[in-house]
Amino acid sequence: MSAITQEGPAVIAGPSPAPRRPAKRDSRKWLEIGLLAGPALIVFVGFVILPVVLAAVYSFFNWNGLTPLERFIGFDNYVRAFNDPVFTKAIGNNFIIAGASILIQGPLAILVALLLNRRMRGRTLVRAAIFVPYVLAEVIAGLSWKLLLSPRGGVNAALEAVGLGDLTQPWLANPEIALWVMFGILTWKYLGLAILLMLAGLQGVPQELSEAAAIDGAGWWQTQWNITVPLLGPTIRIWAFLSIIGSLQLFDMVWVTTKGGPIGATNTMAVYMIQYGQGQPGFGSAVAVILFFISLVIALFYQRYAMRRDLGSNAGRDE
Amino acid sequence: MMNKTRIIRVSAIAAATALTIGGLAACSPAESNDGDVTITWWHNATADPQKALWEEVAAEFEDDHPGVSVEVTGYQNEDLQRTLIPNALASGDAPDIFMVWPGGEVRSQAEAGHLKDLTSVLSDTIAELGATVNPWQVDGKQYALPYTFGIEGFWYNTELFSEAGISTPPTTLPELEDAVSKLKAAGTAPIAVGAADLWPAAHWWYQFALAACSTDTLKSAIPALDFSDPCWVEAGELLKDFVDTEPFQDGFLATTGQQGADSSAGLVANGNAAMELMGHWNAGQIGSLTPDQTVPEFLGWFPFVSVPGTAGDPTITMGGGDGFGVYKDAPDEAVELLKYIMSEDVQKRFAATGAGIPTHPGAIDSVTDPNLKLIAEGLAESSYVQLWLDSDLGPTFGTPLNQAIVNLMAGQGTPEDIVKTLEDTAAAL
Amino acid sequence: MTATTASAAPRRAGLWRQPLVYIVAATAIAVSVVPVLYVWVAGFRTNADLNANPAGLPDPWFLGNYANVLGSTRFWGSVFSSSLVAVGTTLGVVVLGITAAYVIARYTFRGRQGLYTFFAAGLMFPVTVAALPLSILLRDLGLNGTFIGLIIPQVAFALPVTIIILVPFLRAIPRELEEAAFIDGTSRLGFFWHIMLPLSGPGLITVGVLAFLGSWNGYLLPLLVMAAGGMPQDLWTLPLGVQQYSTQYSQDTGAVLAYTSLAMLPALAFFLFAEKRIVGGLAGAVKG
């Protein structure tokens, strides 16, 4: 997908349908563009861009949400956020989760997808089942895991039932492992989507290639590693992009399960924004803008360097 | 050839869209037509019996005042406090009567001009209610009235206490520490605390601050946001020493305060912990977490202990409550409704629901629960009632202060850090 | 769904792999579904039972929670409301998304790349940021407390993901088709209507399902628009409705579990119905 990149000069593929572009044609083209894209643009600008710009404006004020907006303080809110160790720790947590998603969830999803990518009994059942966690609302998923991981909850009970009682833990209470427990919960929730994405991508890998490799004597693993996975590249890169952005903006699951605790072990930027922005929407907006810029910078870098290769397949398509 | 059909098609779509939009907009609730005046009332009771009580009150008021209709809605407490009311006030379209939290919040709302001054219009009600109205005053003017108020103390399991050999509840800190060691020897978690929610743990520091600081310091430092007095650091040191005796249950950092069997209230309810420091509502809370959903027989209450060798007044207590205020643009009938809500009769019915301690002195006798009676007595006997410190300071202080306190309890912060957090937050205001 | 790859591989390549596959599949199913089943089963327990023994099986099996929820008008009102909002959002997202994506994918004009980037940047904004200004805006437009006041912002926030998925999908449709159509005298709009739309079916279903789920599970926007806007509680969406079981200090856990189990059913049903087509839809998207 050639998303946020610079376009090269227009390349016309083949004879164009109309030899000339009379002015009437052009203005009609713009009319159609306006008619088709207009509604989406209006709605988007009006209900997303406008409120967010307003929020960014608030970020330059010291405002308690109740009085008129009048105490302009420039970048003070931003400075305050970056000086707060709780916030910097939250940023760190976001990056750890983003990194862990790429390094752990990615390979796991690919592996499971490779294994499940065959005609097998109950294929629909499996695909439906692994997507179920994604369908479940975050609020509920958080609530159930909180119950399951509580000291006398299901997980500890199950461990004891199979004789692994030594491993029981106050899972979400231990600041050292809480972040990883949270990562486990997130994996449970979102791995299904990743696996489905990979499965979909595998649909595009031609069968003939693996068959040819097998005839040549390549083992299953060799085939996957050298042929299938590389062809899965574009899919992996898109999933990684969505996963990174999702990790940076993580809020719902953390808020419902731990609210960022214990002592900030599972804090994220968005959770910090809601908690510390209480009664001071100016400060909260500043944190939100910081969150936006971090996401944007990473997205731009990612598009430029990681997804560059995917442009080639599309270059000829652009007019 | 394409033009005509296309035009027809496009207009058909446009017409359909217009109808749909019109239909959807019409699905919004119609304006209330019966009566000249409509009063909107927002409260935080999402379940019966309290929700039913407010609805009855609204209906009775409507009957007594023909031409007036009351739209009363209960919202979940956190949503109301964090999102709904601040947004409503900011957008200039707030309900006529709504919950107003004491201390910092009523102060900022009043200073922004959102609340009606009730000092003269409800002067007799104010006089009836007595001292509990103070936390809702700003610069001597009354901006909201409380319907429930209570103080904090220890909720304890009388049976576990006697099994551990503790004959009377402790009254001083050394006695408390002694009780803690006896309970540990008997194999029970001495004190349950819900540090995951931050504020239940923070109340320990608040109480030590009350012990360390003189009443005058409290009265002046908090409005002035001046924390230079060494008593604030001393509070943290007292807390640290106490926490070092390991009086809490295992994993207290992730235990929630109120909800579920594994919360601190749940632990007390099921006999897995001997006591908990908590507000006046805890009886009902603990009751709802027992196997048979009634307040346990073994539940008792005693006030916070005094700390020898400190400057604080041992007879001051800390507490909080809920109240209603009136929006500045609300009709006069809203003030009448508030007066009715605060009337002795309604307060008696409130007390009968067991949802809390009423503020109206005439209704206190309607409180049946013996523990609530103890609390009401404790309230009456205190020389001064300090509002929960995080409420008094204001909404921006809550999270940073409570977090700093929990950090200390987790061994990751110092008493000075807590004061620094207070000073930093004050500076950013 | 096209044929898969390895099943046609020679048998010698891995008899050992078949059981492994089934083990992996079974594990995946178990891990995914067990926590959800837990919620379902726990709805059959009384609060007393839950408090005494958080991890156990119902003892006794208590139908009260489910009966309570199924019997309350508020639940059915919420089902109606959530359905109306979700269907409206999905329609809005699909219509606005496909038209905008079509423009970006198939028209050439200056600023096309910028338009795409503009929509994609919307992905970086969490809804929570826009909450306060959005509620003020809706109030000023008179849309507070209406269904449409909820649907439009939801559509707006769903557009970035929708366009990111649809644009490569539409780009993948061969130019030759378009040229052939033009030679036949079809206008751009005609091409869109008669050829493009049917071909992009799978992609539309994908974004439709994502939009439906996003709307079904959304909490903050409904809270602002419906709850604060004065819509009667019987018509609140399902996620809002669950809060009726949480008071200031406590929570009717059994009822909450029963309620949420029932609330997830329509979303689940919708997903199962569209499941086959989703994977096809995603295949088209990632191919681009």
Structure characterization notes:
The complex is a heterotrimer of chains A (319), B (429) and C (288). Chain A is mainly α. Chain A has helices at residues 23-58, 76-83, 85-116, 123-135, 138-149, 154-161, 178-203, 207-215, 220-231, 233-248, 252-257, 269-276, 281-306, 312-315. Chain A is built from 14 helices and no strands. In chain A, helix 1 packs across helix 13. Chain B is globular, with a radius of gyration of 25 Å. Helix content of chain C is 72%, strand content 0%. Chain C has helices spanning 17-42, 47-52, 64-71, 73-106, 112-121, 127-140, 147-171, 175-183, 188-199, 201-217, 220-227, 238-241, 253-287. In chain C, helix 3 packs across helix 13 and helix 5 (112-121) crosses helix 7. Chain C starts with 16 loop residues before the first helix and ends with a helix. Chains in contact: A-B, A-C, B-C. The interface between A and C is large, with 113 and 110 residues.
Considering the chains and any ligands shown, give keywords for the structure.
heterotrimer, B: 429 residues, alpha/beta, 6-stranded mixed sheet, 4-stranded mixed sheet, globular, disordered N terminus, C: 288 residues, mainly alpha, 13 helices, 72% helix
Percent range for helical residues of chain B?
A: 40-55%
- How far apart are the termini of chain A? 16 Å
Kindly, what is the distance between the CA atoms of the first and last residues of chain B, rounded to a whole number of angstroms? 69 Å
Arithmetic mean of pLDDT of chain A: 80
- Provide the β-strand percentage band of chain B: 5-15%
How does the major sheet of chain B shape up? 6 strands, mixed
What would you call the quaternary organization?
heterotrimer
Determine Rg of chain B (CA atoms, Å). 25 Å
- Greatest chain-chain interface? A-C, 113 and 110 residues
DSSP helix count of chain B? 18
Radius of gyration of chain A: 25 Å
Shape assignment of chain A: globular
Strand content of chain A: under 5%
Return residue spans of chain A where pLDDT drops below 50 for at least 5 consecutive residues.
1-19, 311-319
Taking the sheet with the most strands of chain A, its summary is: none
Fold topology:
The complex is a heterotrimer of chains A (319), B (429) and C (288).
Chain A (H helix, E strand, L loop, with lengths): L22 H36 L17 H8 L1 H32 L6 H13 L2 H12 L4 H8 L16 H26 L3 H9 L4 H12 L1 H16 L3 H6 L11 H8 L4 H26 L5 H4 L4
Chain B lengths: L1 H25 L10 E7 L6 H15 L3 E7 L2 H14 L6 E4 L3 H8 L11 H7 L7 E2 L2 E2 L1 E8 L1 E5 H6 L9 H13 L3 E4 L6 H14 L2 H10 L6 H14 L19 H6 L3 E6 L3 H7 L10 E5 L13 E10 L5 H10 L2 H10 L16 H12 L3 E3 L1 H5 L1 H15 L5 H13 L2
Parallel strand pairs in B: 1-2, 1-3, 8-9, 11-12
Antiparallel strand pairs in B: 3-11, 4-5, 6-11, 7-9, 7-10
Helix pairs in contact in B: 8-10, 8-17, 10-18, 17-18
Chain C lengths: L16 H26 L4 H6 L11 H8 L1 H34 L5 H10 L5 H14 L6 H25 L3 H9 L4 H12 L1 H17 L2 H8 L10 H4 L11 H35 L1
